[in-house]
What we know:
Blueprint: H1 45-57, H2 79-85, H3 88-91, H4 103-120, E1 124-126, H5 132-149, E2 157-161, H6 167-174, E3 178-182, H7 192-198, E4 203-209, H8 221-230, E5 234-239, E6 258-261, E7 281-283, E8 295-299, E9 309-313, H9 329-365, E10 381-384, H10 395-404, E11 411-412, E12 421-424, H11 432-451, H12 453-457, H13 470-475
Parallel strand pairs: 2-3, 2-4, 4-5, 5-6
Antiparallel strand pairs: 1-7, 6-7, 8-9, 10-12, 11-12
This protein binds pyridoxal-5'-phosphate.
Amino acid sequence: MLEPLIYDLSRPGRQGVTLPACDVPPTPLPDGLARTTLDLPEVDQLTVVRHFTRLSQLNMGIDTTMYPLGSCTMKYNPRVNETAARLPGLAAAHPLQDPETVQGSLALMFALQEWLADIGGFAGVSLQPAAGAQGELTGVLMMRAYHLDRGDTKRTKMLIPNSAHGTNPATANMAGLEVVEIPSDPRGNVDLEALKTLCDDTVVGLMITNPNTLGLFEEHVEEVVAAVHACGGLVYGDGANMNAIVGKVRPGDLGFDVLHYNLHKTFSTPHGGGGPGSGPVGVSARLTDFLPGPLVARVQDQGETQPPHFSLVTPPKSIGRMKAFWGNFGVLVRAYAYIRANGPDGLRGNSEYAVLNANYLRAKLEDVYKLPYDRVCKHEFVVEGVWADAPGVHALDIAKRLVDYGFHAPTNYFPLIVHEALMIEPTETETRETLDRFVHALRTIAEEAHTQPQLLKDAPHTAPLSRLDEIAAAKQLVLCCRPVALSA
Ligand SMILES: *Cc1c(COP(=O)(O)O)cnc(C)c1O
């Protein structure tokens, strides 16, 4: 059933709240500032509560169903993180407060910097970037600054594998660099020979995702890093897939010079509604001077008996600020709580379960869905959502039909190098029973694709609206249910 607009529930004179009588003399607004009409719905409180509760139930979210959106790591986020982020001493601190009055918040940020550096194998971390993509821009600006600082001015190219997330080339482009695409080999790795021929003294560096967006661990990662370093380039790691390797492999130990972490993916913050996120960057020793500031530093020599004391510092050759104030602090609190609650063994265990769950699904589906790169995966894997003997059915139809079975769709049509891609990431937080239900749904859909394809073409059947004109929805966006007449 279609939920009516709240305006359609409006009845003249209905009121949701009763305000106390005014106990001060009313003062009219100056002429010209007061609205003469205000077109708001007039509804009672219960109608409002029911309306929004019903709307909330139309959403597919991690609290209602498995959300196997590959690359995005849509895992369950323990509620204790929310409690921590809402503690008044943390949530109510003002960003302009004197650092002396927010030592606890700085201690939390300092610990998080240290832990992320340790987890990634890096010499320094900045918590400034507001998301993964902004972490990328931060990293690439630091790489550029590093070369320019050494007087090495002819480096203008960024090498990017063709399996990369779209934000990688977008970032390089925003930093004023030329993007050079590197092909993948038949096993889904970077084509090492192609890479070697492209490495020269005009290369700023390489942006690589490991495990990559096929969910595959780069088999020649050390040779890839060595080839880039040999021509004087730096290696950028896209850390969006860290959920597979935390506690197992440290990108810094592989020779990466800079990496962004997606705290809202790997380190537990609800996301998917557009933020806020957080994309801290970790760097090797040669880039620490370029980190965006301010960073939190521990002031030395307070003596054994004094509590540690923290201050804000900006590195000498810093690329400057990337974000107002101290980054998205609430997300930092959640990541801190998540890391402390899990500890090293818990974090490593989460990576292991994420990989186990993905391989379980892969093994249960590989006889009905074609795996273009058929090898043990990390935390996600990619299948082709198309069959030669069911030519009318596409990945999109499978994604829409999953809604009828109560599941959010996997990422589809990405990575671009897989035809009709469906990219599945169960994460560590799903139970065996849920994984089995998901397998059952996907196997049933594969059967339907062959026996009753129209069922898939018309899906979803259970949603209030089925297929929308997605182009019109984006290009002819109507944000008002009716023109609002506001006269001065
Ligand atoms: C999510 C993601 C990004 C971008 O991160 P945002 O936080 O969404 O800006 C970059 N690369 C990969 C592989 C990703 O999955």
